[in-house]
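User: Sequence in, structure out. Go.
Assistant: Echoing your sequence, followed by the structure tokens.
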Amino acid sequence: MNWKTRLAQNCDNAFIEALIPVSVRVLQAPYYSAPQINAALGTVFALDRQLIRDQTYFVVEHERVLVGCGGWSRRKSLFGGDHHRVIEDSELDPKRDAARVRAFFIHPAWARRGIGRGILDACHDAIASAGFTRIELVATLAGEPLYASCGYSAKERYAIDLAGGFQLPVVRMIKQIIRDHA
């Protein structure tokens, strides 16, 4: 592994926002049409700065270049950016609610090198440390195989309504956290 995972900072916002459309336009193209992708960029596929403020969002760098990002949340939202959110995203209760895994984007040149799994492992460690026992996420069709290989189960398939009458098929997935009792 010649890349480094770290918590995202506000100074990373512009780099993350530049990575998102590059990642989506290439890696999601086998699963979604160009009009679906265009309608989802900026809303479904967008930066949620609350994740950075909460210190639950990770970036991966190679030689100081951002090649991937993703994170988790203790907030109610399951997906999407914060630019159109009009009310504060309320916090979840770890005793009752599932943590959220959110907003994974990998540069196409770095796809399938373990970066997504590495970020997911960092998320799992942080989620367990925060006291959550369950995780929920909304996977794109492109992301579903990664999450399934990491123990997530598909619970619901549905479509997110987008501007222009388009829809984005997605999969709601869940996972129980198994803790060591050593």
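User: And one key feature?
Assistant: The radius of gyration is 15 Å.
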